[in-house]
Design a protein that fits this description.
The protein has 339 residues and is of the alpha/beta class. The chain has 6 helices and 29 strands.
Length: 339
């Protein structure tokens, strides 16, 4: 079966971290989130996967290859100009010529939403499009979907103010489509699902449905807050990505005598925790990263080869690839990266 991963965006909400690293390669517990998405799709039988790329495309190709190491075949769409979420799919119309039904997932989705059940409902309704939905208590930072008694979509709200929400069902960005969806997207035009395609389907009364997944885990890692939450959820066992290395300290990491490592951590191969340093979970110390003597790193994420200077204090910090934190620094609830 075929699927598409939407991965062309710049992920500006995660700047400065993503100025050096393209969105599909943002790591969650040591692996690019696109890898988690590929394994998720493979679990449900989607072994032919298209992915659109735009920013730092060579880095993405190098990291993901042809997909064979994940048991799938990847087809790249290198966009020279971004055409929007729907516009990217439109460019793959020929690729999906032999697929009556398929799914589309964002590269920043971390989820276990059941794609088999989503697709089964989609087919049973003979739908043009079906959106995966999860409940949230607070929805003012999400796109909200309103359903009728038949689960047909009858309304949208984008980030409704508290108290004005008409629903607590959130659009996950996980979609099942029939080939008829291509009739709703003009060629060679910037076009967006949320702003143009979906309102159009609703207005014309097309068979357009929502799929409720109340027990599913889902988060969009596209903001610092949600990225932290996703990372902490993985470290603390609330979500376990398919095929991920278990949480803990790699056998190839160095932890000096006198260093302390407490709580749930993911410490990568080649990482170094020097004497007197204190690492408090939930924390990620990436491959080849280092924590200097007497430094404190608490509830933080250090990307590969980040270096934390001696005596520094980090709490709820995100530290980008190859970034060096000077000795004695204090970073609280912030993101730093090479630009």
């Amino acid at each position: 079966m075929k699927a598409m991963i939407l991965a062309g965006g710049l992920s500006t909400r995660l700047y400065p971290l993503t100025k050096q690293v393209p969105k599909p390669l943002v790591p969650v517990a040591g692996e690019p989130n696109a890898v988690h998405v590929i394994r998720y799709l493979k679990k449900y039988g989607f072994d032919e996967i298209a992915i659109n790329i735009f920013y730092l495309p060579d880095a993405i190709r190098e990291a993901l290859g042809d997909g064979s190491r994940f048991g799938v075949r990847l087809q790249y769409l290198h966009e020279r100009e971004l055409m929007g979420s729907a516009g990217a799919l439109k460019q793959m119309e020929t690729y999906f010529a032999d697929s009556e039904h398929f799914v589309v997932v964002g590269c920043d989705d971390l989820t276990d939403l059941p794609l088999d059940a989503l697709l089964a409902q989609h087919r049973a309704n003979d739908a043009v499009a079906t959106i995966g939905l999860v409940p949230r208590e607070r929805v003012d930072q999400y796109g909200v979907v309103v359903l009728d008694e038949r689960e047909r979509i009858v309304g949208f709200q984008e980030k409704p103010a508290l108290g004005t929400e008409r629903s607590r069902l959130v659009n996950t960005g996980i979609y099942a489509f029939s080939r008829a969806i291509f009739n709703e997207i003009p060629a060679a035009t910037f076009y967006d699902f949320g702003k143009q395609v979906f309102p159009g389907l609703e207005n014309k009364g097309a068979p357009f449905f929502g799929f409720r997944a109340p027990a599913a885990y889902w988060t969009d890692i596209g903001t610092p807050e949600e990225y932290r939450r996703a990372t902490y959820d993985v470290l603390e066992g609330r979500f376990v990505p398919i095929g991920a290395r278990p949480v803990g300290v790699s056998e190839e990491a160095f932890v000096a005598a006198g260093a302390r490592v407490e709580g749930k951590v993911w410490i990568g191969a080649g990482a170094r925790i020097e004497g007197g340093a204190h690492v408090v979970g939930p924390t990620v110390v990436g491959v080849g990263a280092s924590v200097g003597r007497d430094a404190l790193v608490e509830r933080s994420v250090l990307w590969d080869r980040a270096a934390i200077g001696a005596g520094s204090r980090l709490r709820d910090a995100l530290v980008g690839l190859d970034y060096r934190v000077e000795a004695g620094s204090e970073l609280i609830a912030c993101s730093v990266a090479n630009e």
